[in-house]
Design a protein that fits this description.
single chain, 437 residues, elongated, alpha+beta, 6 helices, seven-stranded antiparallel beta sheet
């Protein structure tokens, strides 16, 4: 502060000297502060000579800077004085309050007076007492809640009725969900069990086919003399022994089905042939069950056939049918034994189904019934999409010719065997199969 005042006085003296008409000798003076104990005169330092215009401009700038500096210093001093006064007042109030508490007086911090300082805390003793009362109140409320909870656990009657009803409803809902989950698990278990059984049956059938094929190769009978000279043997009445034709039927308006068949089963030979489609499992079925005669089913319509093959000998049978008037004919060993009409008249045979040998289909390709299974041997099962002439049927029955079917022909590669005990074996010579052989 003293330095600034000294500088101001020196500059002011110099300016006033110039303004008073004193000659300008071309020299400039700088004043600097000296200690109080030293020389108080202003030591003069000579400045380089400056022209008159630059001298006046420099003096003006210096005066303006000094004025701004003085104003800033005054503002700072004013702020510091205010802060000092405020702190002094607060210290006085603190000292007064301390004296009042010391002599038992209720000073400026009484309940009826307002705390004007704002940043001075209340009496710590009052705060501790207040917190202690609050904690004691919370402790009492907690003990009351614990006692109520204990009584509620001992006796359900202490629960409000609304809460008890809510809990009961919740328990009933949980019981329903549990029963539903148990039912779902049982259903999944049943499905898994069925799938496991089907997989096991399929595995057994595959293994059986491999075993049979190995047995045939070991016995040297696996290579048939001709592709059609083999037979399908189904020796037991079960629901898992059967053969399946790998090909399907086209849409047909007429057909002829021929085969060699040998069976001595009783009662009834079962189902040597069945063809099912998705819309109708009994599209074409040849069946003899119980003491009934052999029946032909077309689109689930029935005609009884005058055939008798339950003597344990080979027989050649053919059944022809046409959608026109539902006309049918039945042949055994080359001769026509029966005819009829109105069997599923004007109904075309539907395509894309499954042909099963030895089982009756309740659904397409499955759900077999052991009571309707065929027991015996089958061979040369052929199908044509026309009605064969009687002479053609007779030539096959007396072994003078063999005519393969133009829709389904009897080939070893066209027949799959399923079930342990079912076999494909070499077929006897045709003359050996004749009834009088």
């Amino acid at each position: 502060m003293l330095s600034l005042l000294c500088a101001l006085l020196c500059v002011s003296a110099r300016v006033s000297g110039q303004l008073s008409g004193r000659e300008d000798d071309g020299k400039r003076y700088i004043c600097r502060a000296v200690p109080l104990s030293g020389d108080s005169s202003c030591p003069v330092t000579l400045l380089p000579e400056l022209n008159a215009g630059s001298q006046e401009e420099e003096l003006r700038n210096t005066v303006m800077q000094l004025r701004e500096t003085i104003l800033q210093q005054k503002e700072t001093i004013s702020k510091q004085i205010g802060t000092i006064n405020e702190l002094t007042t607060k210290l006085s109030l603190c000292a007064s309050a301390t004296d009042d508490r010391k002599y038992g007086k209720e000073g400026s911090w009484g309940k009826e007076k307002q705390n004007t300082m704002g940043d001075v805390p209340r009496d710590p003793n009052d705060t501790i007492d207040s917190l202690g009362k609050t904690m004691q109140g919370l402790k009492d409320r907690l003990e009351n809640l614990e006692q109520q909870h204990l009584r509620a656990n001992i006796s359900g009657a202490s629960f409000p009725s609304e809460l008890r009803d809510l809990l009961q409803r919740r328990l009933r809902e949980l019981q329903k969900q549990l029963l539903k989950k148990v039912s779902s698990l049982e259903e999944e278990k049943s499905i898994l069990s069925n799938a496991t059984a089907a997989y096991r049956l399929k595995t057994e059938s595959t293994l059986s086919a491999l075993v049979d094929r190995i047995s045939e190769l070991e016995k040297g009978g696996g290579d048939f003399k001709s592709p059609e000279l083999f037979k399908l043997s189904l020796p037991q009445r079960t629901n898992y022994l059967y053969g399946r034709i790998t090909k399907s039927l086209p849409e047909m308006y007429a057909f002829t089905l021929c085969m060699w068949i040998k069976s001595s089963a009783s009662p009834g030979i079962g189902t040597p042939f069945s063809y099912g489609v998705p819309e109708q499992a009994n599209e074409i079925v040849l069946i003899e069950w119980g003491n009934n005669p052999i029946e032909l089913l077309i689109n689930d319509k029935v005609a009884q056939l005058p055939l008798e093959v339950r003597d344990g000998r080979w027989h050649h049978i053919c059944i022809s049918w046409t959608t026109r008037d539902g006309q049918w004919d039945a042949y055994q060993d080359g001769g026509k034994l029966g005819t009829g009409d109105n069997l599923a008249a004007w109904h075309p045979i539907k395509p894309g189904g499954v042909i099963i040998l030895g089982q009756e289909q309740d659904v397409v390709g499955g759900r077999f019934d052991a009571g309707q299974a065929f027991v015996g041997e089958l061979s040369q099962v052929n199908i044509w999409d026309r009605v064969l002439k009687p002479v053609e049927i007779q030539s096959m029955a007396n072994c003078s010719a063999y005519i393969p079917g133009n829709v389904i022909s009897w080939l070893a590669t066209n027949v799959e065997v399923f079930g342990r005990g079912a076999f494909k074996r070499p077929l006897e010579m045709c003359q050996e199969r004749l009834p009088n052989a």
